[in-house]
Amino acid sequence: MRTLRTQVAVVGAGPAGLYLSHELRAHGVDSVVVERCSREHLERRVRAGLLEEGTVRLLRGSGLADRLDRQGLVHDGFQLRFDDTVQRISTTSLIGEPTYIYGQQEVVKDLLAARPPDDGSLHFDARDVQIAGITGDHPSVAFTADGEQVVVEADFIAGCDGHHGVSRASIPTASLVVHSRRYPFDWIGLLVGAAPFASELVYSVHARGFALASMRTPEVSRLYLQTDARDEQSDWPHERIWDELWQRLYVEEGRRTRGAVLEQVRVPLRATVAEPMQFGRLFLVGDAAHIFPPTAAKGLNVALEDASVLAHALIGWFRRGEAGPLEGYSAARLPAVWRAQDFSAWLTWLFHPAADATAFDHRRRTASLTRLAEAGSSAVAFADEYVGRSRRRPPARSYVHELDGMEA
Ligand code: FAD
Ligand code: DHB
Fold first, then answer.
1. Is residue 13 included in any domain, yes or no?
2. Is the minimum distance from the CB of 214 to ligand 2 under 6 angstroms?
3. Which of 126, 237, 240, 316 is the most buried (most CB within 10 A)?
4. pLDDT tens for residues 264-318?
5. CB of 391 closer than 6 A to ligand 2?
6. Does the residue 333 lie in any domain?
7. Does the residue 25 lie in any domain?
8. Please, is 152 exposed, middle or buried when counting C-beta atoms within 10 Å of its C-beta (0-12, 13-18, 19+)?
9. For strand 148-153 and strand 156-159, is the pairing parallel, antiparallel, or unpaired?
10. Bridge partners for 204 per DSSP
11. Does 203 participate in catalysis according to the annotation?
């Protein structure tokens, strides 16, 4: 058995774990990262694509955005299609912030490339990962690699191991509440070797269902299609997927071309929030603590925000002996998590017609979408949530407070 000693043991080398470890090292705090998969798998895994301005600023501030600034696509806005109309919502005009298209696996590659090579602080292909001692002062992470048992002893553990990891499951059920919601929809996601459908993202709401035409690069498209959560895979042969995409994106008959499908995934639309996001010396970060339906593209953005807040709380502890920010990590993060959860839920219901939707529902949805596309305060509020600026502002004084004050 081999024993390693570090200040922070990080479980999971997704974007959250790698970014946390990067920030800690930049401020002189030592960490060891333990990852279940191989490096090749992480660098190939296609997931998120839309980055908010706040995320790009975090990456720039950490010296991680050189390639993103060269190769990422900057989008001033997006298209909203419904009822044969095309509206354009420009977040840059509305609130001065664009969004960015840059694949999650590219963020992961940049984070991996920024690490010192082979310094022994990153362990891939870890088997049987287990967390122990989180209620005491000496927590540890044990795993097996190449047949050898390894124990990482640390002062703190950051659980960055996604929705199916061991971290959340290591917290006694009596000390954790997991709030969940399964939406009655799934998405089929296609990665297609063809030029993007349009120069910006197209969110399309059709009576037949929702479709989203996104992209990864000028040569690769990412297409999503709403399906019913009860559907079987066999209900969706390629022919039907393409036909629905064309109809829902309002593509004219003569312009219906396919591209080579490089990958196909099924994405269940669901949400969870684990409260609190910490227990003893274990902190939950990113998807380990919360997942969002993909509609509003919040998961990666909120995960990196968590990682940044936790990194600075840990740096405060190790460098200046501050306990407050660490003790307050969960309380600091949950309002932002719920805000993103609320926007994601609202957009999910707005964009996805239910299987039993009536003509009344459809007309009411049209009224909502029309209002959304009208310039004015509701468009500004929408843009604020879509680009995540609302989560970067201190909470506004609430009216409830003011009423209390008046009554007193
Ligand atoms: P993960 O990326 O899940 O990383 C967790 C890591 O932990 C993984 O590498 C995993 O292998 C490892 N791990 C798991 N179990 C263990 C274990 N027991 N021991 C050790 N390691 C373990 N978000 C956005 O912000 N914008 C988008 O446009 C967007 N689009 C999306 C589209 C799709 C189709 C999907 C599925 C998601 C999308 N998301 C989007 C969400 C985003 O991909 C996730 O929120 C993001 O991956 C969270 O990062 P993470 O580091 O917290 O978790
Ligand atoms: C992507 C996913 C989303 O959910 C979204 O709203 C925008 C883009 C994407 O994967 O490209």
1. yes
2. yes
3. 126
4. 999 999 999 999 999 999 999 999 999 999 999 999 999 999 999 999 999 999 9
5. no
6. yes
7. yes
8. buried
9. unpaired
10. 81, 211
11. yes
